[in-house]
Amino acid sequence: MKARAGFRREAPEDRRRQLAEAALRCIVRHGNAGVSARQIAMEAGVTQGLITHHFGEINELVAHAFDLMANGMLGTVMNAVDHAPADPKARLEAFVENSFSPALFDRDVLGVWVVFWGLILHSPRMSASQKGEYTAYVITVEKLIADYAAAEGVTIENPRLAAIGFTALMDGLWLAWCLNPEAFQPEEGIQIGKNWIKGLKLGAFA
Amino acid sequence: MKARAGFRREAPEDRRRQLAEAALRCIVRHGNAGVSARQIAMEAGVTQGLITHHFGEINELVAHAFDLMANGMLGTVMNAVDHAPADPKARLEAFVENSFSPALFDRDVLGVWVVFWGLILHSPRMSASQKGEYTAYVITVEKLIADYAAAEGVTIENPRLAAIGFTALMDGLWLAWCLNPEAFQPEEGIQIGKNWIKGLKLGAFA
DNA sequence: AGAAAAATTATATGGTCGTATAATATCTCT
DNA sequence: AGAGATATTATACGACCATATAATTTTTCT
Asked: Is B46 near strand C, with its CB below 7 A from some atom of it?
């Protein structure tokens, strides 16, 4: 056989990242149908065999892409939060506002997550990744909320539950808006998030 | 060719329902991979050709299954609400508690919805169904909330936003718990829902 | 009872899927 | 410069996919 086409040899970790990014683009374009070794390889400008070589089976590539995306999104939001004024209220509101920024509040981004959710429900490997990433997310939110509550002098009986609720609210709004952008305006989403914070301050979780 | 196997001829609407129900079972079992004419036909004890005959293309069958499921779920919850005491507070709390009942707060049920969400994002036909069903859902919730607010003497500046937020919270909790049942207990989910109502009463949306 | 209509089966076709295998190009190290 | 290591290509295989077409059974209507 002639492997006649010239190619560039790359470090395994680079290739793995390239393939993961190509997978995300394919999923954006075609949803579940985009999860295909052939399509992903073509998108990465590479042959299918490379996926087998670097990941063994394609599910492992998808799980890698999932980790990449999850870390990237939390990193993006928290980076914005850390650039807000050090005031706890400002930080919490920066979290809300950035969660609704076009970079995250986006149909393409949700489309990728929906595919991941479907896989999490049927794959132990994906489920394991999700558990770690969800926990990290909730802990981050819990800290933002606890700092805010302390600064405002509000008592919160169970900060963990508050964080879970707030996270769920944001995810639910994200989901609803992406599925049907006519349902409400992003600014209305921000308003709903801030109303939740107002409820917290008024003692809903006391 | 010999169509040798005996078969029972059924009314088109019956067959369509049978096929839709078989589709739901297939999706429960295998997620996106369960959306397959062959598998669904086998699950329904029927030949693939019947799907073509009754639905034209398989996407139309899936959309039909979606409508069936959405109507069934809202019907189930509202049936329970209508069996609660006529008091607005009792009705709203019945809504929360029943949303977290094992019939709905269920990994299998979420698994079906996740598949639908994925399709909604990429199919105008599915998106059209979703718009109608989401609107009906929010309007129902808005009425429950408005009645509650009136009974408690709370003002709500924008009842629509409150209903969207409450719906998003419930969906987000459903999603989070199904993806990772260790994250919190269903009773904690009910508590979070009731805390949201408490916030509403305290004036979070005033 | 007999014929027309429609539901259902049976089969064929062309495409895509995941992955295994072997050949080969590129790189690194000495 | 040359050899070993491995990243990468090329190709093959069997399974499943959606859907079209034609044959056949069941039902209905008279």
From this structure: yes
